[in-house]
Design a protein that fits this description.
- With 476 residues, this protein is of the alpha/beta class.
- The chain folds into 3 domains: 215 residues, 3-Layer(bba) Sandwich (FAD/NAD(P)-binding domain), CATH 3.50.50; 110 residues, FAD/NAD(P)-binding domain (3-Layer(bba) Sandwich); 111 residues, FAD/NAD-linked reductase, C-terminal dimerisation domain (Enolase-like, domain 1), CATH 3.30.390.30.
- It contains 13 helices and 21 strands.
- A 5-stranded mixed beta barrel has the order 1-2-3-4-5.
- Strand 3 and strand 4 form a beta hairpin.
- Helix 1 packs parallel to helix 8.
- The longest helix is centred in the first third of the chain and has 25 residues.
- The protein starts with a strand and ends in a 10-residue tail after the last helix.
- GO terms for molecular function: dihydrolipoyl dehydrogenase (NADH) activity; flavin adenine dinucleotide binding.
- It catalyses: N(6)-[(R)-dihydrolipoyl]-L-lysyl-[protein] + NAD(+) = N(6)-[(R)-lipoyl]-L-lysyl-[protein] + NADH + H(+).
- It is found in: Cytoplasm.
C-alpha cells in the first residue's frame, strides 16, 4: 500500500528527523510529519531547535558577543573602535538565513535518505494509523505503520495573569525577533532560556532584570559553579533577583507593568518588553486520539519504559515529550536508539552521561553528579579544581573568568561529575563525557597529554588536582 510504512515519525525536531533518517538508513520504509513553516512560507523541518530555539538563539548570542567585545574588550588588545553601532535588522536577517540553511538541509537529508516527508500535523489513531492534516489546508490523509515514533517536542509554559501578546509580552520566540533593542527588558525566569536571551539583549544595550521565583540560582548546576557564574553575570550588568515571584503583568501606555512579590513585599516594575522564560512542557495537544492506547503521566509526559516504548504496542516516544532532560542531543540519541531497536539491533539509552550546556559568556557545562547530589547520597569523593585565571591560553585570549571542577570516587577514582564555567565549556565537556562513558578515572585524564597552550589544560590540571598534584596551582 502506498500509505503503509515500516516507521512513521510524528515530529521533525532533533529527535524526530534523526530517528527518521536512521530508520531509513536501516532499510525501513519511513515517513516523517512536521508542522513547522519557515518565514518564506515553505516547510521547515527541524523542530523548535532549528527554527525557534537552539540555533537562532546561538546565532544572536554570537552576534551580541561580537558587539560586546568591540565596545568593551577590543581596547585591551590595542584596537580602537569609536561609536560602534548594531544593525538589529541585519543581525536578525543573518539569524534567519542560518535557520533557513539548516532546515533546508534537513529537507535534503530526507530526500537523500528516501524519507517521505509530510508538511503538516499528525494525530495517532488506534492500530498505529496516523491522520495527517497538511499545512496547506488540503484534505486529511491517513497513513499506517508497523511502528510509530512520537517526537512532538515541547512548548513554553505560560504563567497565570501574564498573557503573551507577541509584542511587549513574549515567549522565547518573540525575544528572537525584537526589531529594536528594548531600553528596559524584564525576564521572568533565570534559567537557561532566560539567561541566554537576557544576555543577548543586555550586550546590545538593554537594561535587563531577571525575576526568579527560586531562592537559589541555577539549582540544577553545581553550587560552586552557580555561585561563580552569578558573580560574573552581575559584573556584566545582569540584575538577577532571586526569591521574586511575578503576580501579574499588564500593558499600560505601551509599557509592561509587572507586579512582583519579594522579601520586601509587593511592588511594581515597568519594562519596555517582558520575556517569559519559566520553562517548557511536553506538547501533546491534538497528538493522540482517545483510543490510541498511549498513556500520559501526571506531568503530562508520554509514558514510556526504559527503551522508549509507550503503553501502545509498536508506538514509541522520544525527546521533550517523555521523561528525562529536555535537551536536543538527548532527543537525537533516543531517536537513533529507537530506530535501531525497531530494526532489531541492540541499542542503549544512557542518561547518566548526557552533558548540559548554558551558552552564556562564559559558558556553563556539566556532566554527571553535582557536589550537593553526591553529599546527599552519602558518596565519598575527592574534588579537583583549576581556575581559568591560571591557564595561559585563557589569559592570552582575555578569557580568564572561569573554573573547572572534577569529582571522583574516593576509593575507585572513577569520575562522578565534571562542571565547567568558562570559555568553550561546551566543547571542553566532551572529553569528560567520553571519559565517564568508559567509566574512566581522574587518573586517566591526568595522564593524557594535553596540547599547550589550550583551554583543555584546565581540565587536565583539575584532574591532577583530584590527587593533589596539580602543577600550576596550589595543592591541598
Amino acid at each position: 500500500m502506498a500509505n503503509a510504512f515500516d516507521v512513521i515519525v510524528i515530529g521533525g525536531g532533533p529527535g524526530g528527523y534523526v530517528a527518521a533518517i536512521r530508520a531509513a538508513q536501516l532499510g525501513l520504509k519511513t515517513a516523517c510529519i512536521d508542522r513547522f513553516t519557515g518565514k518564506d512560507g515553505k516547510a521547515a523541518p527541524g523542530g523548535t531547535c532549528l527554527n525557534i530555539g537552539c540555533i537562532p538563539s546561538k546565532a544572536l548570542l554570537d552576534s551580541s558577543k561580537h558587539f560586546h567585545h568591540v565596545n568593551h574588550e577590543f581596547a585591551d588588545h590595542g584596537i580602537a573602535v569609536k561609536d560602534a553601532q548594531i544593525d538589529v535588522g541585519k543581525m536578525l536577517a543573518r539569524k534567519d538565513d542560518i535557520v533557513k540553511k539548516l532546515t533546508g538541509g534537513v529537507t535534503q537529508l530526507f530526500k537523500g535518505n528516501k524519507v517521505e516527508f509530510h508538511h503538516g500535523t499528525g494525530r495517532l489513531l488506534a492500530g498505529r494509523q496516523v491522520e495527517v492534516q497538511p499545512a496547506d489546508g488540503s484534505g486529511t490523509v491517513t497513513l499506517e505503520a508497523k511502528n510509530v515514533i512520537l517526537a512532538s517536542g515541547s512548548v513554553p509554559i505560560e504563567i497565570p495573569n501574564v498573557e503573551f501578546n507577541g509584542d511587549t509580552i513574549v515567549d522565547n520566540v518573540g525575544a528572537l525577533d525584537f526589531t529594536d533593542v528594548p531600553g528596559k527588558l524584564g525576564v521572568i525566569g533565570a534559567g537557561v532560556i532566560g539567561l541566554e536571551l537576557g544576555s543577548v539583549w543586555s550586550r546590545l544595550g538593554s537594561d535587563v532584570i531577571l525575576l526568579e521565583a527560586l531562592e537559589d540560582f541555577l539549582p540544577a548546576a553545581d553550587a560552586t559553579i552557580a555561585k561563580q557564574a552569578a558573580r560574573e553575570f552581575k559584573k556584566q550588568g545582569l540584575d538577577i533577583r532571586l526569591g521574586t515571584r511575578v503576580k501579574s503583568a499588564a500593558v499600560k501606555k505601551k509599557k509592561v507593568e509587572v507586579t512582583i512579590e519579594g522579601e520586601d513585599g509587593e511592588s511594581t516594575l515597568t519594562f519596555d518588553r517582558l520575556l517569559v522564560a519559566v520553562g517548557r512542557k511536553p506538547y501533546t495537544e491534538g497528538l493522540l486520539a482517545d483510543d490510541s492506547g498511549v498513556e500520559l503521566t501526571e506531568r503530562g509526559q508520554i509514558r514510556v519504559d526504559e527503551e522508549s516504548r509507550t503503553t501502545a504496542e509498536g508506538v514509541w516516544a522520544v525527546g521533550d515529550c517523555v521523561r528525562g532532560p529536555m535537551l536536543a542531543h538527548k532527543a537525537s540519541e533516543e531517536g537513533i536508539a529507537v530506530a535501531e531497536l525497531i530494526a532489531g539491533k541492540p541499542a542503549h539509552i544512557h542518561f547518566d552521561t548526557v552533558p548540559w550546556v548554558i551558552y552564556t559568556d562564559p559558558e556553563i557545562a556539566w556532566v554527571g553528579k553535582t557536589e550537593q547530589e553526591l553529599k546527599e547520597a552519602g558518596v565519598e569523593f575527592r574534588t579537583g579544581t583549576f581556575p581559568y585565571a591560571a591557564n595561559g591560553r585563557a589569559l592570552a585570549g582575555g578569557q580568564q573568568a572561569g573554573v573547572v571542577k572534577m569529582m571522583a570516587d574516593a576509593e575507585s577514582d572513577e569520575i562522578l561529575g565534571v562542571h565547567i564555567f568558562g570559555a568553550s565549556a561546551s566543547e571542553l565537556i566532551a572529553e569528560c563525557v567520553v571519559a565517564m562513558e568508559f567509566r574512566g578515572a581522574s587518573e586517566d585524564i591526568a595522564r593524557i597529554v594535553h596540547a599547550h597552550p589550550t583551554l583543555s589544560e584546565a581540565v587536565h590540571e583539575a584532574a591532577l588536582h583530584v590527587d593533589g598534584r596539580a602543577i600550576h596551582r596550589g595543592n591541598r
